[in-house]
Amino acid sequence: MSIYKFLVTGYRSSFSIFSFEPSTAKIKPVSDSSPAPANATYIELADSPALAASEDGGYLFTISDEQGGSGVSLRLTGDQVEITGQRTVHGGPVHVHIMKDGSGIVVSNFKGGSVIFLPITSSGALSSSSESPLLTLPFVYESQTAPVPKRQDASHAHHVAEGSDGTLYLSDMGSDRIWKLNREGESGLNIVGWLQAPPGAGPRHSLISKDGKYLYNVTELSNEILIFPLTDCSEPVHPLPNFKCSIIPPSVPSAAHSYMNAAQLIFNPRISNVLYASNRLELRLPREFATGEVGDAVAVITLNETGDKLVDVTYVRTGCDGVRGMRASPDGKYVAVAGRYGGGVEIWSVGESGADWKLAGKDEKIDLVTDIAWL
Predict the structure, then answer these.
(1) Which residue ranges does UniProt annotate as crossing the membrane (predicted)?
(2) Are 20 and 30 in contact (CB under 8 A)?
């Protein structure tokens, strides 16, 4: 049986690599000696043909929120990770997206409400010479009271998804929009339109269906899944009106929903109509709403074959507190989840349907994790 490897990052001083052997359910440390930039809370492994990995390594990209924030290029060789480049991003970065053609990365700043493109050189490192102008997002509630004033006090850029034509879709929690961006020149970006979320939804993470017809978004403030038809030529594009799917588990009373925060939305790479959405903060609800659960829940969403209707939603109870890191293995057999505040890292097998979750491995000692990359 195969042995898997994965890398964890977050509020940790180093990148740590672990192995997971399904036959023994053991998670074992492999390497913990590669220094990480400060608060490398999100990481992506390059899979573009232009950044093809060799047998003993590959290229990764991460962020750091130290000293004005930065995008960081990494080289994985064997079980060691080396920093190969670092560029300022002029804000508080939360997400990095690697362009499908391998030409660069896009870093979004939650603090500062902005986004920036940083080119990648032929060596897989970030260019040190590009102009890379910062694109600051307009705040649509500037002259009015936002639906959720405490959370929507400014534009707050988050996740970036890329369409087959290179169009970028940038979630803006503060403005209830998903901005459509295009490349401009060597290293610029510009806004060409937007997808309009309901007031107070707070878009966070997006996925684009394999056929390119739909964009799925999990909202941080309303904790639901929205589906936008990308074939709709009207401006702005609105979500499908008849699709309703909350990701909050039934253990949380409706009066406490506003305290919850959705986190990540991922596909099962083997089963295109199954999505996984992670919840946060159930263990940190006010005392009067305490549910007594041991960890946050992951919503398992099954769609119809065309991807525009809900078939079922079930909830998997993890033992992790603050599930922010969640990634499916490349073969779609396992999902790793990590607790930002406790519970360590858990590996779940998901079965043939993608919805039959069973705990396959756990290490409670792996702490302060906010993201995971399967290697």
Answers:
(1) none
(2) no
* Segment 280-300, tens digit of pLDDT: 999 999 999 999 999 999 999
| 3-class DSSP state of 134 | coil
Claim to verify: residue 292 and residue 353 sit in the same structural domain: yes
Burial of 121 (0-12, 13-18, 19+ CB in 10 A): middle
With a cut of 80, say whether residue 151 has pLDDT above it: yes
Full-prediction pTM beyond 0.85? yes
Q: What per-residue confidence (pLDDT) applies to 49?
A: 86
Place of tokens 């403030």: 221
- Given a contact cutoff of 8 angstroms between Cβ atoms, the answer to whether 26 and 18 are in contact is no
Q: Is residue 360 part of a domain?
A: yes
What CATH number does the domain containing 159 carry?
A: 2.40.10.500
Whole-angstrom Cα distance, residue 200 to residue 44?
Answer: 29
Q: What is the number of alpha carbons within 13 Å of residue 80 lying toward its C-beta?
A: 5
Residue 7 Cα distances to 10, 159, 204, angstroms: 11, 20, 23
Q: Name the burial class of residue 178, with classes exposed (0-12), middle (13-18) and buried (19+) by CB atoms within 10 angstroms of its CB.
A: buried
Burial of 59 (0-12, 13-18, 19+ CB in 10 A): buried
H-helix or E-strand containing 363?
A: strand 358-363
Q: 3-class SS at 4?
A: strand
Range of the domain at 370: 245-249+259-374
At residue 318, what are phi and psi to the nearest 5 degrees?
A: -90, 175
Q: Given this model, what pLDDT does residue 1 score?
A: 55
Short-list 167, 179, 106, CA closest to 140: 179
Q: How far, in Å, CA of 59 to CA of 54, rounded?
A: 9
- Of the three residues 238, 269, 301, the one that is the final residue of a domain is 238
Tokens representing 267? 């596909």
The total number of structural domains in the chain stands at 2
Cβ within 8 Å of residue 178, ≥6 positions away: 169, 170, 171, 172, 194, 195, 197, 203, 206, 215, 217, 228
Query: For residue 274, what are its two tokens?
Result: 């199954």
Burial of 1 (0-12, 13-18, 19+ CB in 10 A): exposed
Q: Which residue blocks in the chain are alpha helix, DSSP H?
A: none
310-317 sheet: strands from edge to edge: 261-268, 271-280, 297-303, 310-317
Q: In this structure, are 264 and 302 located in the same domain?
A: yes
C-alpha torsion sign, points 49, 264, 223, 220: negative
**How many residues appear in the chain?**
375
